[in-house]
Amino acid sequence: MKNMEKKPVKTSKPRVKKTSNPKQEKPVIEKVEDVQRLVHLLQVHQIELEHQNQELRIAQEELEVSRNKYVNLFDFSPIPYFTLDLNGAIKEVNLSASKMFGIDRNKLIGKRFASYISLEEKEVFNSFLKTVFSSPVKHTCEVKVMSKDKSLFNVLLEGLEIEDALEPDRRCQVALIDLTEFKHVENSLKKSTEELIILNNTKD
To answer: Which pLDDT does position 55 carry in this prediction?
Structure first.
């Protein structure tokens, strides 16, 4: 028998796949026309924003001018005015009101308006203030207010809620109409009428 030479058996080694770094995807370059259109849209948008900002600045300036006019009218009005918040705290006061109360207006600001009203009429005022903030129309009530020297004034309060774009809190404006002289005349007429009735009865 012939000796058969054994051929060496080739062992197949597993092929190792070469790992290559994935190439970063390059952004797709848009057409020149698309880029130009996008740039144009951005420019138009920028111009619109500039116009809107200009309009806002003009509106803000007009609002400031209107507010300054209102402040001047408020300050120099011959009628005493107070601006109150929901709790009845004084936020603004004009010169006439400061003169009536005999108190510097810087010292009035922040105080409760009810603290200057006679004790028996505080409830009337609180009800009045609540009604003013719950209704868009003007409301009135009669109370007595006390000045620094303890003098009492009969006043008619006229209140109306106001809107101020520069003030986020709700506020109302209250005008004080002095009825003191009117009440004196009314009381004098009432007294004279009573005296005439007594005189007539005595004559009869």
So the answer is: 80
Residue 108 CA: distances (Å) to CA of 84, 96, 102, 104? 11, 13, 10, 7
Instruction: Sketch the domain layout of the chain as residue ranges.
Output: 80-179
- What's this model's pTM, rounded to 2 decimal places? 0.58
Domain 80-179 has CATH 3.40.50.720: no
- Distance CA(141)–CA(156), nearest Å, equals 6
d(CA 128, CA 110): 20
DSSP 112: B
DSSP code per residue over 130-189:
HHHHH-SS-EEEEEEEE-TT--EEEEEEEEEEE--TT--S-EEEEEEEE-HHHHHHHHHH
- Place 194 in a pLDDT band, splitting at 50, 70 and 90: confident
Task: Measure CA of the first residue to CA of the last residue in the chain; give whole Å.
Answer: 179
DSSP character at residue 110: T
Mean pLDDT of 98-117: 93
